[in-house]
Amino acid sequence: MIFYDLFLKPYESYENYQIVLEVVATLFGLLSVFFSIRKNIWVYPTGIISTALYVYILYKFGLLGDMMINFYYTVMSVYGWILWAKSSEDHVHVKVSWATKKEWLFAAALFVVSLVFVTVVYYYKPFLDNHFSMEKVTPGLGHLDWANWLDVLTTAVFLVGMWFMAKRKIENWIFWIIGDFICIPMMLYKGLGITSVQYMVFTVMAFVGFMAWKKGLTTPPPHNENPAEL
Fold it and tell me: Would 25 be classed as within a structural domain?
């Protein structure tokens, strides 16, 4: 009964096409993480299908931060696809490495910029929801609930994770683990039970991915300046 109330009951009010879209997006998302664990370039075409669908789904459910990050994923996946294709010897699999100090600094800047940007977007959310009209609208942050604030945080976390993945850095999995775990209650609260289950699976898969990428890599994390090209 608890499972039904948490994961299935919200779908009673959904249109059939909305449920189908979420299921398809979830399946392709799981495929994308599977290919990522195997360092397989198919992580990107499968991921593009999933994230493009979630742009629409998350917009409909008012999660603007996650909607934007999925739009960013879609664009970044093209960038990552190109980088992986160039660095792959067999045009399928790639080699991975630890991030340098310079890359960590760049990631920190991405994180801060993302937090500020998404907060500003939420500040003007009443304006966006009113079809870009300021009539009878007062911008502010008072309308945000805890799920919206988690959305702001996870957007920044996932943005950094996506960038690290495109650069083939092992640390990308750390950000996926953190972000996926946070998204479980957030998606459940928003009535996206299927997506919440997806993030449960993602959390486990991200841990497996971290161990798989780390296994067999003899090069230790860098402790000195050895900047890589951003």
Answer: yes
